[in-house]
Design goal:
There is one protein chain. This protein has two domains: about 60 residues, Alpha-Beta Plaits; about 120 residues, Arc Repressor Mutant, subunit A (Orthogonal Bundle). The protein is built from nine helices and four strands. The chain has a four-stranded antiparallel sheet with strand order 2-3-1-4, covered by helices on one side. A hairpin with a 2-residue loop joins β2 and β3. The radius of gyration is 19 Å and the shape is flat.
Length: about 200
């Protein structure tokens, strides 16, 4: 790596979906000796320039953590859509009030952000990923519901609002369809975690 205060190297990373991912990537890059000047979901700026050897080292470390470098510097429509959705559901941590405005649908935001009709985005996404865009969005939404059920005290009503569901019933039905389990099961996991923590503290 060549250090030049006026130069930065830009990396695009697949798999960064939440604040924890940002912390892990920043820590790993720092351990490799790189100075991170800017980082957000899917994008990292490093001070200086990097060569193929640096990219190989970075790629190996990221792979071990479940991430991967996006080598193609001109992302495809499906890559842009996937990154947008991952960031969309990863942006809200447990302290934030909601992921989205109930009056603005994700499909409209995708259309506005990518400048393409939703049907076009959906078609290219399904062809590249082997899963429909709708199913991918549902999976990310359910993952966020799981996170809040296990790591927060929020009620199911609040979680439904935060994740853009029209009702608790809608959330519960889709949750069972995707996971085969009920939201109350994941809430029990939280109670078990809390009980173990209390036992360890005494």
């Amino acid at each position: 790596m060549t250090i030049n205060p006026e130069e930065t190297a830009q990396l695009r990373i697949r798999g960064m979906v939440c604040a924890r991912c940002i912390d892990v990537v920043q820590t790993e890059l720092s351990h490799l000796g790189f100075e991170v000047t800017d980082i957000d979901l899917g994008n990292v700026a490093l001070r200086g320039t990097i060569d193929e050897h640096d990219l190989t080292r970075i790629g190996q470390v990221l792979t071990k953590q479940g991430f991967s470098l996006i080598q193609d510097q001109k992302p495809t429509v499906h890559q842009l859509a996937k990154a947008f959705i991952d960031a969309y559901f990863g942006q809200a941590d447990l302290s934030e009030s909601k992921i989205e405005s109930p009056n603005r649908r994700l499909s409209a935001q995708l259309h506005a952000d990518l400048g393409l009709e939703y049907d076009t985005i959906s078609s290219q996404f399904a062809k590249a990923e082997g899963i429909t865009l709708e199913k991918y969005i549902i999976s990310k939404r359910i993952d966020k519901v799981k996170e809040w059920l296990v790591y927060s005290d929020n009620t199911l009503t609040d979680i439904a609002y935060r994740t853009g569901y029209s009702s608790v019933q809608h959330l519960s039905n889709q949750f069972r369809q995707v996971t085969g389990l009920t939201p109350s099961y994941f809430r029990q996991v939280r109670q078990q975690k809390l009980a173990l923590q209390q036992q360890a503290a005494t």
